[in-house]
Amino acid sequence: MLAKEVFIEEMTWPEVKKALESGSDRVIVMAGSIEQHGLHLPTKMDAHSAEVLAELFAKRLGKTLVAPIIRPGCSEHHMYFPGSMTLRKGVFQDVVRDYVDNMVRHGFKNIILATTHGGNFDPMQELVPELKAKYEAQGIKIIPILDFAEFVEAQNSILEEFKMDEGDAGVHSGGSETSFLMASEPESVRMDKLARGYVGKFDAAFDEVLMSKGMQAVTDIGVLGDATVASKEFGEKLIDALADYYVEMARREL
Ligand SMILES: [Zn+2]
Q: 47 C-alpha vs ligand 1 centroid, how far in Å?
């Protein structure tokens, strides 16, 4: 079960009311995804990591609740693989708009936007000017943590310590993400299916092929990185580092 001190969906309405009245006026609106994650991780991976990180983020920041994780997200580039789901960009953006509206109506004053899935960063970031224009005059702060490069950098900040290569760590079902689940929910990792996928550069040219032709054009198993280098210890450190990254980014604007 999700932590009932911070997840709105686990709370009763009087508990939410009490939290708001005692100063918990910050809320995290985080999006994950439901999409293929290679041969060894479940499709819920990004929604799961959003839950794990949002809980730590909210607890470390304090006075913060978490809206239900948005799942699925924008995953058109994974649709070749069975089980993947995607929302049309406009539908996804409307969901985010309504989430923010709902939170504002209940009295939250600081709305933090974040995502654990690469394909959601741009669609969410595009909404920020509109949301700021709409809500800031009412004294509501919109706090986006939506820079994909920064997110990957935070993720890669522990590589040296573990002597893990950037290509192996990967950005999808590779060393990093597999380690995450080994630490947070090990029973969900198919340990006999760990494999090495695409381990080349993640540059603009790569991105272009990925987004125009789909994931299957670069890896036939749906893995960017090398899952065989993953470890629980790396995962524990990674979760800690990412939670700290979110807190640091939010504090800059609070
Ligand atoms: Zn993922």
A: 8
